[in-house]
Design brief:
Elements (H helix, E strand, L loop, with lengths): L5 E2 L17 E7 L5 E7 L1 H10 L3 E4 L4 E4 L8 E8 L6 E7 L21 H16 L7
Parallel strand pairs: 1-6, 2-7
Antiparallel strand pairs: 2-3, 4-5, 6-7
């Protein structure tokens, strides 16, 4: 049973060019709330399918030659919320909610960045409310 993952414009799993790089494509993982880039992993078609069906981000380990779901041993999973592909159909973008630190070192991201602070989602919501009130003003609102 597939979970609900929003797809970004142009996403069609059947068009991803897995053969371009020997069966794997890079998968950039971005925090769905903060938009901070969390990590980069590699996926084959099976890892992508498992991610879509389970909602948990799954990669293909190049060193172990097997699938691995992020957090399967640490508990620091990545819950996929949105998924897309780049213009060449050879790189996947996954927006996810992390359950704890993402890097195996214990850092919040694999790029030594902080993943805290102001959420752009809050600002987007605020802009939406302001635009709605501007286009449909109410007498009792200021």
């Amino acid at each position: 049973m597939a979970v609900e993952i929003e797809t970004l414009v142009g996403f069609d799993p059947s068009k991803i060019d897995f053969e371009k790089a020997g069966g794997l494509v890079p998968a950039v993982v971005q925090d769905a709330q903060s938009r901070v880039v969390l990590m980069l992993g590699y996926m084959n078609a099976e890892a992508l399918e498992k991610t879509i069906n389970s909602g948990l981000v799954t990669f293909f380990s190049r060193s172990r030659q097997t699938l691995w779901t992020k957090g399967e041993t640490s508990g620091n999973t990545l819950s996929a919320k949105k998924i897309g592909v780049d213009c060449d159909n050879d790189t996947i973008l996954i927006m996810a909610n992390p359950a704890g630190p993402v890097c195996h070192t214990g850092a919040e991201t694999c790029f030594k960045q902080s993943n805290t602070g102001c959420s752009t989602e809050f600002l987007s919501k605020l802009i939406s409310i302001i635009e709605e009130r501007k286009s449909s003003p109410k007498e009792d609102a200021y």
